C-alpha cells in the first residue's frame, strides 16, 4: 500500500537516497524552480511517473487537508527498515567511530522525526526502534525529519535488550539518556 510524503526536502531526499521506493510524484507548476525543478529533472531522468498540476495548493489523494505540501507530493512504497547488521556496515564503510541511537517508547511522530533529523546532522550511523510502543516511520516522521529518514539505516526490532547486547558485542559503549536528571550530556566522561 502506498504512503504519501510531501514537502520539497522530504521528496528530494527520497529521490536522492531511495528512488526505488517512489511510485509517482505530483508537482505544482507554480514556482517550479530551485529544488522543485531539481525534483522534476531527477524524476524525469529516473523515469518516475510525474503529474504536473496547475493549482498552487496541491492536495492529491491521501494528503491531509491541513498539510503544507510546498507543491510537491510523492507516493512511495512501504518504508524499508534496515537490519542491525546494516547499521554495523554503515560505520564500517565510513571507517568512523560508531554512533547508534536507540529509541525506547517514543510514540509521537513529531518527536521521532526531529530525533532522526538531529541524528542525521550529528553523524549517527543508525537508529533502532522497538516494534511495540514505538512510532512507525510514517509520512509525518519523514516530513518532520526533512527526509533524513532516508539517509540513516533504521532498524525495527522485537527486543531492545537483544539490540543492546548485539552492539555491546561489537564493543560499543552503551549510554542511557533521560529527561529525569540534573546531568547534561556534555558533562559525561
UniProtKB/TrEMBL annotation:
Domain RNA 2-O ribose methyltransferase substrate binding: 4-82
Gene Ontology MF: a single term: RNA binding
Biological process per Gene Ontology, one example term: RNA processing
Source species: Thermodesulfobacterium geofontis
A Pfam family it matches: SpoU_sub_bind
GO cellular component: cytosol
The protein, known as: 23S rRNA (Guanosine(2251)-2'-O)-methyltransferase RlmB
Keywords: Methyltransferase, Transferase
Amino acid at each position: 500500500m502506498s504512503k504519501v510524503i510531501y514537502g520539497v526536502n522530504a521528496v528530494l531526499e527520497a529521490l536522492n537516497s531511495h528512488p526505488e521506493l517512489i511510485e509517482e510524484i505530483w508537482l505544482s507548476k507554480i514556482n517550479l524552480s530551485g529544488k522543485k525543478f531539481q525534483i522534476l529533472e531527477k524524476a524525469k531522468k529516473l523515469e518516475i511517473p510525474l503529474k504536473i498540476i496547475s493549482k498552487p495548493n496541491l492536495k492529491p489523494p491521501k494528503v491531509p487537508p491541513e498539510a503544507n505540501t510546498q507543491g510537491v507530493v510523492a507516493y512511495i512504497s512501504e518504508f524499508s527498515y534496515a537490519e542491525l547488521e546494516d547499521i554495523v556496515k554503515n560505520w564500517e564503510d565510513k571507517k568512523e567511530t560508531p554512533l547508534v541511537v536507540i529509541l525506547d517508547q517514543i510514540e509521537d511522530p513529531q518527536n521521532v522525526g526531529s530525533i532522526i533529523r538531529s541524528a542525521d546532522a550529528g553523524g549517527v550511523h543508525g537508529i533502532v526502534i522497538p516494534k511495540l510502543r514505538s512510532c512507525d516511520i510514517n509520512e509525518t516522521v519523514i516530513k518532520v525529519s526533512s527526509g533524513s529518514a532516508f539517509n540513516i539505516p533504521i532498524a525495527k526490532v522485537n527486543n531492545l535488550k537483544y539490540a543492546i547486547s548485539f552492539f555491546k558485542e561489537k564493543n560499543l559503549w552503551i549510554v542511557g539518556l533521560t529527561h529525569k536528571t540534573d546531568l547534561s550530556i556534555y558533562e559525561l566522561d
